[in-house]
TrEMBL record:
GO molecular function: acyltransferase activity, transferring groups other than amino-acyl groups
Protein name (database record): 3-Oxoacyl-(Acyl-carrier-protein (ACP)) synthase
Lineage: Bacteria, Bacillati, Actinomycetota, Actinomycetes, Kitasatosporales
Domain Beta-ketoacyl-[acyl-carrier-protein] synthase III C-terminal intervals: 219-305
Organism: Actinacidiphila bryophytorum
GO biological process: secondary metabolite biosynthetic process
Length: 312
C-alpha cells in the first residue's frame, strides 16, 4: 500500500495583506474587496526576490534530514503551470542536484494544474511497486514562482508563495493511501483562455463531477463520506466550493483554515494543508480523510488517506 511517510511545507518570511498583494497584482478595489470578503483571504506569504529553488527546497531538505537520502529512487517535481509559462526543462534535475540525490531518477509532472500532487503520489507508488525494491522511496516536491505577469493574469485567485514536499513509500509508516479516483474533462482544456460559454458550462459541470469523484474514492476505500474526518482541498477561496463542500454530509469538515493565512500556492496547497493538520496533530489515527483536488482544464481527483498510529 502507498504510504505518505512524511509531509512538510515552507514559506518565505515576508507576509503581505490582501490589499498589499492586490496592489502588486494590479487588482481593482472591487476585486480586492471580493478576495477579502467573498473568498475569505486575509494574509499570505510573498517575496518578490525569492527564486524557485529557494522556495521549493526547504521542505524537501527537512524531510531528507529525517530519512535516508540513498533510499530515494525518484524525485518528482509537480507543478501547475506548463508550456512557456511553466518550469524550465531541467528544473527536476536542478532540484535533484541541489538536494544531493544523485542516485534518483528526476522528472516533472504537470498538465493537471493544481490537481497534480495526487496524480504524482499515485505515479510514485506505481513506480515503487514496479521496481519492487524494499525500502525505496520517492520524494515529491511542489511549489511555483510564476512571473508577475502570469500571477496577475490568474485573476480568479490570489497567487502567493508556498511550497511543500512529501515522501512516498510502500508499506512504510505514515498515512496509508486507500484509494485514488480521478477524471479529466478535456473539453475545457483552454482553462482561463476559454470562452464565457466554457466558463458557464464548467461551473455547472463542476459540482456534479466533484460529488461523483468523492463517492468513487470512498467506495474504493471501503468507507462512506460520513466516515471522513477532514476534506482537504486547495486554497481556492470559499466561494469556489459553494454548492459542494457546504452540503451534507461533508459540511463543517472541510479544512479551510489555511485559506485566509496562505492564499493559493500553485500545486502545493493540498500538501501544505496536510502538513498543517499533521504538525498540529489534528488527524485522528485510523480515521480516513480525503484530499480533494481540482485543476483548471479540468481535472478532478480525490484520494482517501488513513493516518496510522505510530508504534508505541
Amino acid at each position: 500500500m502507498i504510504t505518505l511517510t512524511a509531509v512538510e511545507s515552507a514559506f518565505p518570511d515576508t507576509t503581505v495583506t490582501v490589499e498589499e498583494r492586490a496592489a502588486q497584482l494590479g487588482r481593482s478595489d472591487v476585486q480586492t474587496h471580493m478576495h477579502r470578503t467573498i473568498h475569505g483571504l486575509d494574509t499570505m506569504h510573498y517575496d518578490a526576490g525569492l527564486d524557485l529553488y529557494d522556495l521549493v527546497l526547504p521542505p524537501a531538505r527537512r524531510i531528507l534530514r529525517a530519512t535516508d537520502p540513498q533510499a530515494v529512487r525518484y524525485l518528482i517535481y509537480g507543478h501547475a503551470l506548463h508550456g512557456a509559462r511553466g518550469a524550465a526543462p531541467d528544473t527536476p534535475q536542478q532540484i535533484r542536484q541541489r538536494l544531493g540525490l544523485g542516485g534518483a531518477t528526476a522528472f516533472a509532472m504537470t498538465q493537471q494544474n493544481c490537481a497534480i500532487p495526487l496524480s504524482a503520489i499515485d505515479t510514485a507508488g506505481a513506480l515503487l511497486r514496479a521496481d519492487g525494491e524494499p525500502g525505496a522511496t520517492a520524494l515529491l516536491v511542489t511549489g511555483e514562482k510564476p512571473a508577475p505577469e502570469v500571477a496577475a493574469a490568474i485573476d480568479t485567485v490570489m497567487i502567493a508563495d508556498g511550497a511543500a514536499a512529501c515522501l512516498v513509500s510502500l508499506g512504510g509508516p505514515g498515512a496509508q493511501v486507500r484509494s485514488f479516483a480521478t477524471r479529466t474533462r478535456g473539453e475545457y482544456y483552454q482553462g482561463l483562455a476559454g470562452s464565457r460559454e466554457d466558463f458557464r458550462s464548467a461551473a455547472q459541470m463542476r459540482p456534479k463531477v466533484l460529488w461523483e469523484i468523492m463517492r468513487e474514492a470512498v467506495d474504493r476505500a471501503g468507507c462512506t463520506l460520513d466516515d471522513i474526518e477532514w476534506i482537504i482541498p486547495p486554497n481556492q477561496g470559499y466561494a469556489f466550493w459553494e454548492g459542494v463542500l457546504d452540503r451534507e454530509p461533508v459540511a463543517g469538515r472541510v479544512f479551510f483554515d489555511n485559506n485566509r493565512r496562505f492564499s493559493h500556492c500553485l500545486a502545493a496547497d493540498i500538501l501544505i494543508n496536510a502538513a498543517t493538520l499533521t504538525h498540529e496533530r489534528r488527524f485522528s489515527p485510523g480515521r480516513p480523510s480525503m484530499f480533494l483536488a481540482t485543476g483548471l482544464g479540468w481535472t478532478f481527483s480525490a484520494m482517501v488517506v488513513v493516518p496510522i498510529p505510530e508504534a508505541g
